[in-house]
Amino acid sequence: MSNSQTDEAPLEEDALGKMLSLHLDSKISAEQFSQLKDSLEANESARDFYIEFIAVHSQLEQIHKAPFSNKEYLNELLQVPEAPTKRPYLLMMGLPAALLVAICIWIGSQLPDKPAEIPVDYQVTVSDTYQAFTKHDGLLNIGQKLKSNTPYRLESGQVELLFLTGVKVLISAPAHFEVIGENEIDLSAGILIAKVTTAKGKGFTVRTPGGPVLDLGTLFGVEIESSGTSNVQVFKGEVELANSRGAKKILSEGKILRGKAGQDQWQPAKRLSRKFYSVIQKNKQALTPNIVLVPDAENNMFGADEHIGKSYLLYSPASLRDQIVNFEKKDQRLNISTNFAVVYFNETSRSWQFLVQETLMPFVPDATDLLLATIESTATNNDSIKKTITYFSGTRGTIHGISYGFQSGDIQVLPDHFLGQANQGDFSLVGTFFIRNPD
Amino acid sequence: MSQMIVTEELILNLIDCQGKLYSYVLSLTGNRNDTHDILQETNKIILEKAAEYTPGTSFSAWASKIAYYKVLAYQRDAARESLLFNVEILQEISEKSLSKSKQNDRRLGSLFHCIEQLSDDNQKLLKQRYEEEMSLEEIASFWGRTYNGITSLLYRVRLALIDCVDKTLQLEDGA
């Protein structure tokens, strides 16, 4: 817990709030209660603050407890009218016994012979939109509740949905989707990114033509192509994929699987569509601000052919090209990576170097530069150079003034590889993303 | 119990507005236990008076009115010194609270977002307090802090969330 939060708070400044807190936590003394009461009676702004405080307190209770609406439970009641099963979490949430008893009496008296399926509302709310236009329901607006078990055809824009379980889902047009459960959505076309950060959200499921995708982690994306092929990529945590026979696969951080419609199996894939990553890029602030996407292009990097010793994979958001004055335009034709490079530290001159026109040239690192891997080049007996790459995932620190380390990702350096071919000394970069360490 | 005419719509409405009703009654009593009792009584009356509800009109407004009368009855029976508000102030709190509850869903959405902005420790603190229902003493012991320290921290986290929700809504409204 942060040390900046001291135990001794300035009670004089916010005594009302402190007393309200004590009151809500049932820890207020008689004297404090009397003070609180006097203060609320005398001061209108204190009463306004009180209302605000109570509202956030009760909503925190709602968020951290089971949702009120529960289709399975209501249907269970409809089918077993004689006695409600004990569901402490519902009672905890204040759904009182009187309501349950009354529902049972109503069911018993009005539907004794034929259990009926009642319409349900999974309470999925539109929490953000960008020109989100649907075929039958027109523009979707913030705050609007989506109809459950009703197909939506998103024709343009994008929409962010909030489930009562705390799961946030971003859907980009064109897309066909349907909310089919409190923690479940069906996607038959389009791009969907799910962010699951609450305990109740775990198990969030996206039904796809390739099979169900069940969340075991925190951030993943799904893309359904027009052919019905389903693609899934995990950015944080894990997901479980199943086919129609129930065979399951766990997909871990950074990995991609692709399931062709009708083929009933998930296969590894290299990347999803450009559009998919552009949706991530546009919404990265809301999804995971520290994500860095690798462009869908040849990412080639020059290396010093005969170098023995350490070199590093550098990510430079400010663009290395801007720092190299004499960088030749012709190199752009070679699809040289704009933001990634292999760099060297010269122990003699104590400077960082970068290969330009076959020559190592010094450059000044930017504060935002980041080292992602170390490349150890060693001479072998047969005159070749062996390169061992160690990624800095899950670490952090500084090497000669440049920060190193990242949280996770799927980037990989291919040594002795350039423009899709074997090429001694140079490098290519593959993969789709990495996530920077939080500050 | 008198004869009930309860429709599917009424049941769904009733379940749907439990969160709002809870917030509303809690604002009037300031006491969690009393709120649960009053809410239970309110639900019972709603079901008994189901025939008086006009479908198509605001269910939560109708239910809130019933809840308000239940709170008044509770005020009448309770010891005066245990009440947070007199009847005049109760009326004012009721009006303001109902006005605020119109934004309940939006505020709930923003609150989710704001919780995500909190540090992992503060998110855990909220979870311990609201989901796991640990006592403040247990939470203080878990974090190795004093009881006063943990109550202060909990207060500051709630305050930060209020601030964040307000700012988020203002931003959405283009203010």
**Within the CATH hierarchy, at the fold level, what is the topology of the largest domain in chain A?**
Jelly Rolls
Shape of chain A: globular
Q: What's the total helix number of chain A? A: 8
Total number of domains of chain A: 3
The helix-and-strand class of chain B reads mainly alpha
Q: Pairing-aware structural class of the strands and helices of chain A?
A: alpha+beta
What Rg of chain B is obtained from the alpha carbons, in whole angstroms?
Answer: 19 Å
Q: What is the CATH architecture assignment of the largest domain in chain A?
A: Sandwich
**Termini distance of chain B?**
51 Å
Pair of chains with the largest interface and how many residues each contributes: A-B, 70 and 74 residues
Keywords:
heterodimer, A: about 450 residues, alpha+beta, Jelly Rolls, 3 domains, 13-stranded mixed beta sheet, eight-stranded mixed beta sheet, 8 helices, disordered N terminus, B: about 180 residues, mainly alpha, about 75% helix
